[in-house]
Specification:
By secondary structure, the chain is of the alpha/beta class. Helices cover about 40% and strands about 20% of the residues.
């Protein structure tokens, strides 16, 4: 493990823990005491802090840190999804001399230089949830393949609308136009939709902004009279789109499907606005990311390995430099109450 030059940061963390931890966000995690010999300092950087999706990932991350006992975990990120702030945080953590930075890049190009500089300084860098520019990280902790996610959403929409013979317009409400994972899913969804009788009429990019997602959904509901379905392909745009359909009184006429946590979507599933919610186990994603980070820093995980022993998750396959969590989950009225995240 590298010798860390973190005197000021360690002092600040000590003072915080001793006298003012109650003022910190409940999402911040500093597990055990920082700076001790044998500890691995891991920073977990989400696209945006304060939304249910990434908060549930942080729960799994804390579970892994507690289980390992040799990890000092810091979970932090921009509250507005600004990738420039992500880059600034990576730069600061590099100066602090942390061991591993796990990045969910909102705009891979914007954070690429900071990630490269971290690697050049000896910091191990992983991506999770969304991948970065080639050469900026060692491994990507991949929740599911773009093919499985994109086709899963299209298949769910076709099924929920009544089958392959149903025709009509659909729209996609994404997040930022620079979001690499959403763009990869869209690249899969377009040809999958072309094989159906559904017509993709537009794609909206409201960013990670709930109000903008709601407004975009309201706009397409008014603009397209033959609208049959809305795909909300971020955990912010999906509930926003469902809310817009509910407010418009068109529940049952326009279906919404997409990606979000089950807890965020239970109300809409129960009232019929949504029939299928697509995702993966976000707690497991955070858990796997921290296990991979510790193993990478400790030399137990190396490029070329075919599998990774991931605690309670068992053996997880590695495809190239992608550590694979597993397949997508589909939450419906029949099973959604079995999940709590």
């Amino acid at each position: 493990m590298r010798i860390k030059t973190r005197g000021v940061m360690a002092l600040l963390l000590f003072v915080c823990c001793a006298g003012s931890c109650s003022r910190r966000s409940s999402e911040d995690a500093s597990v055990s005491s920082g700076g001790r010999d044998g500890k691995v300092t891991v920073c977990l950087l989400p696209k945006i802090k304060g939304i249910a999706y990434f908060s549930s990932c942080a729960v799994g991350a804390r579970e892994a840190a507690d289980e390992l006992a040799n990890v000092d975990l810091l979970y932090d990120g921009p509250t507005d999804g600004d990738p420039k702030k992500q880059a600034e945080m990576i730069e600061q953590w590099t100066v602090d001399g942390v061991d591993v930075i796990c990045v969910a890049p909102n705009a891979p190009d914007v954070v690429a230089n900071a990630m490269r500089e971290a690697q050049d300084a000896g910091v191990k860098v992983l991506t999770w949830d969304a991948d970065g520019v080639p050469g900026t990280r060692g491994f990507f902790v991949n929740q599911a393949t773009a093919q499985a996610i994109g086709e899963g959403m299209v298949n769910a929409m076709v099924k929920d609308l009544g089958g392959p013979e149903v025709a009509g317009d659909v729209v996609i409400i994404s997040s930022d136009a620079t979001s690499a994972n959403q763009n990869a899913w869209i690249d899969v969804m377009k040809p999958a939709l072309a094989r159906t009788k559904l017509n993709l009429v537009t794609i909206k990019y409201p960013g990670e902004n709930a109000s903008a997602a709601l407004a975009d959904a309201q706009d397409v509901i008014k603009k397209y009279p033959n609208l049959k379905g809305i795909f909300g392909i971020s955990s912010v745009s999906f509930p926003g789109a469902a809310e817009a359909v509910e407010q418009s009184g068109k529940t049952g006429q326009i279906l919404v499907t997409g990606l979000s946590t089950p807890n965020e979507m239970k109300r809409f599933v129960r009232n019929g606005t949504v029939k299928s919610v697509i995702l993966w186990n976000t707690i497991d994603l955070g858990y796997l990311t921290i296990l991979a980070a510790e193993a990478f820093a400790s030399g137990k995980l190396n490029v070329g390995d075919a599998a990774f022993s991931a605690g309670r998750l068992g053996e997880k396959p590695i495809a190239g430099d992608h550590i694979l969590l597993g397949d997508i989950l589909v939450f419906t009225a029949e099973n959604i109450d079995q999940y709590d995240f």
